[in-house]
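Structure ticket #2291
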Amino acid sequence: MRAMSDATGEGDGREGDDGHGGDGEREGDGGHEEDADSLYYVDGDLVPASEATVSVEDRGFAYGDAAFETMRAYGGDLFRWEAHADRLRDTCETLGLDHGIAHADLKRRVDETLAANEFADAYVKLSITRGVQPGTLDPAPEVDPTVVVIAKPLPRGGVGSEPVHDGPAAIQTTKTRKAADRAIPAAAKTHNYLNGILARLELRVTGADEALMLDPDGHVAEGATSNLFFADGNALRTPSLDGPILPGVTRATVIEIAKAEGIPVEEGTYAPDAVRSADEVFLTNSTWEVRPVATVDGIAVDGDGEGVAGPLTTLISRLFDRRIEENHYDGERL
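Resolution: structure written out below.
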């Protein structure tokens, strides 16, 4: 990798001041646009997006006291629904949020939202809050949850699909670091997104697309809304879930695909320089799927900064698309 513009302040490969990954899988980011005519599911009712509201006393609004999942629907089917539902359950258990709603009931609400909008290919956000409670920090033991489903159209996925991002990403190490797991559990996907927001605010200076956040010890963690992979030679590397990393569903899928293809995958602890000097770098989340990285702290990944995906990134992306094609479109384009 060679240095590009010094606008990032880190073109020389130094970590910088302090240095700095959903549903991933995170809030998602990109590809979908607001449509006032879309219907959102709010507590049993399908209402126009422009009229969809929750109470100002809802704890999800007041405190970020809510769990959510961001998903993709392909051909009318949710990608890896059970994995998303399990993670949503785990988040609710972390929050002590006993909503009493079965996975099948939650999926029915999502399916109804997709059907009402006639969306076959879509971005879906499913949220469960603790509901309306008195304005004190302590949650009441009784829960009357608020359930919201947001769906927005996306292009068809699978083979020959249009990327749902703005091309290869520029990523920037941020001073904002991931919170320690003992403070804010990274595996809990909640409405409290201030950590990632603070990291993204730093990008206004450099114009980078995604934050590269470090853990409290200065090791590479993840993006604000994405998991991180990088490659040296024929091996694929990604930060271990032992750190403050969201266990992304797309991340897990990429690891499965790589191992099935005989590609060595290492989950470990890495210094920022390991990413800056990597042969290839890419990001994953539910919306982007697999997004190549063009520059890291102003240093070109591919040697010229044009963001051409490397061979491993290209292979993983192609195999991911093929899996989507086979599982959601009956292999129509194969």
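Closing remark: The chain has two domains: 2-24+162-328, 39-153.
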